[in-house]
Amino acid sequence: MSATNRDPSVTSEPEPIDEPASNLHSLSRAVLARKSEYVRPHRIRIKVGTWNVAGCPGTDKDLASWFIDGKGVEPHLDAKLARMSLSESNETIEINRYDEDTSKENARHGSDSGVPEEPGSSDESTQGKKEPNVRLLGGEKIGLYVLGLQEIVNLNIVTQTFYSDPDAIAKWQDALQAALPKGYSLIASEQLVGLLLLIYASPEVAETISNESTVSVGTGVYGLLGYWGNKGAISSRILLGETTRLVFTNCHLASGHDQASLDRRCWDYNRIMTQTKFAPINSGGIVENEGEKLGDEDFAFWLGDLNFRLDGLPGEDIRRLLMLHTRGEYDVSKKHTGEIFSDDGVIVLRNNDDDDGTNTPGMISREASFDKGSSDEDTDLPDPDDFVPDPHDDPASLQATLNSLLPHDQLKRMIKERKAFHEGWLEGPITFLPTYKYDVGTVGLFDSSEKQRAPSWCDRILFRTRTDVSQYEKKCQDEIEAKKKDEEMKKMGVDKAADDENVLFDYDPATDSSSDNPAYNDANYEYDEYDEAGDTVEQVVTKEGYIDKIQLDIYTSHQRIMSSDHKPIVAMFTLDYDAVVPELKAKVHAEVARELDRAENEGRPGITVIVDGKGSDKNIVDGSEGVDFGEVGFLRKETRTLTIANTGGVPAKFGFIENPTMQDDATQHPTWLKFKFISSQASNDDEAQSALGDEITLEPGETVNAVIEAYVHDLAHVRALNEESAQLEDVLILRVIDGRDHFIPIRATWIATCFGRSLEELIRVPRGGGIRALVEKRQKGGSIPYTLDVHKSSPSELYQLTEAVATLAERVIADENMLEEVKVPRDRPGWPFDSETWQAADTEDHDRLRAVIIEALEEDKPVLETIGADVPALKRLEIVSEVLLLFLRSMPDGIITTTLWAKIEQTLPNIGSGKTLAEAEDAKTAILDILATAPYYNISFVFLMSMLTRVANELVSLNKEEFEALRKTGSAASLGKRSLSFRRSTGGSSSIDLAAIQRRLAWEKKAAEIFGVAICRAPTSTNAKEKKAIEDKMRGIVEVFLRQDRT
Fold first, then answer.
1. DSSP for 246-302?
2. What would the pLDDT profile of 411-427 be if each residue is shown by its tens digit?
3. pTM of this prediction?
4. Most buried in the list 329, 449, 676, 959, measured by CB within 10 Å?
């Protein structure tokens, strides 16, 4: 829709903004600087309509005729259209004086309502003479149709105040879609109970619209769910051509004629203004930080049933006065002929753009031409009295009557008093009859019901621009400053005012804005009956810095639409705006990007990343293709090396940074990757390679190595990998200061493991081959289905580990008896299960041996055969014990599940406190009875307890007398008190070693603490006291099975 008669405004630049030197080459700024190359002037017409359909049936059938086709206008009931009806068609109004078909159509339309015509609805006096057919511009000549409807449902039904009716939306949307020319697209559709806002755009305009955001605000009766939607507003924001923000608000304010209703209408308006929030603008993938509100747009249009009434005049007088005009009986000095205006005279219309590009008034004359070039030389100049008078100057005209009523309009008064619509809102000249309230099925017949409501302009269309809002804000600021200056003058005192020369001599009328920005009680806010501001073109600087223009072309009502007690009104605007041409912008963007890249690359550091292949059969790959670790298993480290070279012409400073997407991920698992920089001169086999720091600076031509290590160690991460809810994938970001970031994809293949799986899964793993054979057979990973057959009564991994621990404990004691250098750390309670007591944890091959044991379990190989005999038994025992505890802790349900724990806790609430041998036996029996309800868990528990007893008897053994003493005392405390009696009973030569008994008791307690936490799944608590109590109970469950009759 390019305009050929409009000067491009792309030369208008936004206000310059000082930017830091580092942003001088900003891509967006550079593209914006060349906007004249991709922005072109466009012109569209916007047709805005509003109608309160009052819930009347059949109103949707009238929609096409008045809103799309422009029919239903009654010229003699609109002062402006009455003058235009004497002229030929102009840009927005089509007039056909002799169209018989159109006249028949109008007659047919009037009779289709099914309601007998009232005196005001027929033109008996005009019979025999054809009325001019006036139609507003419509069809495909409109770029944007905006329709606001009110009361599309019956608001008297209580349920309608809560819910939207999809059928109501569909009915009106289908009616409008059917009437529109082919290709028009729905831009926005929103219902708020009785309110409905529909926006359609032509194909050319629709493709330039983006960032549509529609919100609704209810202002009805306040209830439990907030303000009901029987009153309120729907607002829609669109971005036109990537440059111009348009907002359309359809509202229905509180009804009623009294002061309380008026105050409520003002409250409704202010709530809508403050509560309407749009979604942030998304420009080129960049989303603004905050959403926009009403007032942030470039052009705003407010339409709907505002419900403002006429004050200070009796309703009967208003009705009688206007009815005289509708019947053509107001001017009693003239004989009624059926026409409002005479046939002679010259009417000067608003300026029209001529074909030659000039801008001259359009005129039409019914008299002979009095031009100098006329062929009729005898023509005399017409008498001035023969001209049709301006309706404003004719006291008998309809406009004069309207002018006398409009000063009583509540909306005008609220604007004056700054209570509503005072922030720069404008309205076109009102030249048409009040739109409310009519008898349904009539033209010009006001409410004849018992209530006889006074006619009022309830239905309105207002508009404003960014310039209007800015002028209002400036006016408010000027008033504040003026008030502040007045207060300062008053503080000085009247007697000192004469001493201030500034009062008399420094006044500058040019800087006094009071005349341009009057206070709210100035005369400028009074209704001006001669105001034709709607015909002027307003120039607006948009938020994006472009210069747009808007003009109100027509503002009228459709009197011949009779299916509701409201008359629909329309306003037509011509908008000249600068719009982005996407193809041209893409071309400029590409050119600017290339120019910036070329300019920046000359001074930017550049590095090259190369992945060193592992093994001679691997080729060196570019870092952009990523690093593949291959297969990675639980607690098995894999490393890869990157070679980073400075291939630029300036020093390069770089380092790895956190992945921002991972930081925002709530399900993020502990990192499985570690990296460090080492010297490129260091050997790949050198384990003592020292890190060079988190950030490295390389001179041109220098290189450095980065070692990346993959190591999965977290048990929760292991469970997620087994379930395939997580993958071994990541992206390392190598941040080059003032340079280009390098993204290095990392990937690895997870090796299925028996760790991190439940007991119910593990007993379903077939014998031979272990978990890996099962995954290979099923050709997929993930959890092991409980629908598979059970192959074992207890996990084979648990059986292997418990047997290996017990066997190695025996070998350690045998080695101690045979070798002097082997010393069992009996003075360390809990060994070999307490990590604090391990002696081989820091040895070089510890991690390798642990990984070998884990791999044997995954492949169902004998654990003891995987570690060579050259490894000391004491070291093997510690590592196998570590793997056993890892295995138990990794089981999600443990050995004593949450359900079993609850039963034990309920049966034995004091299981954690000290007990006698008899009490311990009773507790043991109760625990076994509960575990018997879960046989697989019971068997696994017995395996563990049997293993612990065997290890205790090997590592901290007692003789028969010591066992007897411990059996009778039951605890270390009672043992200390009764030690003297033991000595006496044995004659002072007892073979009881009290220290040995103390070691045994300490070992049992520590082992019970370790295994209690490892096998029990109890509810967690953040309270330290409760947590300690739960841990004591866990320890007590294991401890009672170690306190057996030690014989």
1. EEEEEEEPPP-SSHHHHHHHHHHHHHHHHH-BPPPPEETTEEPSS--BTTSSSEEEE
2. 999 999 999 999 999 99
3. 0.52
4. 676
